Amino acid sequence: MVRYSVEPEVPEKTSKARGAGLRVHFKHCREIAHFTKGMKVDKALKHLENVLEFKAIIPFVKFTGGIGRKAMAKQVKAPGSKGRWPVKATAVYIDLLKNAVANATTKGLESEQLVIDHAQVNRAPAGRRRTYRAHGRIGKYASQPAHIEIILKQEEAPVEKADEEPKKITKKQAARGRFVKVGKA
Question: 57 with 83: CB under 8 angstroms?
Answer without folding.
Answer: yes
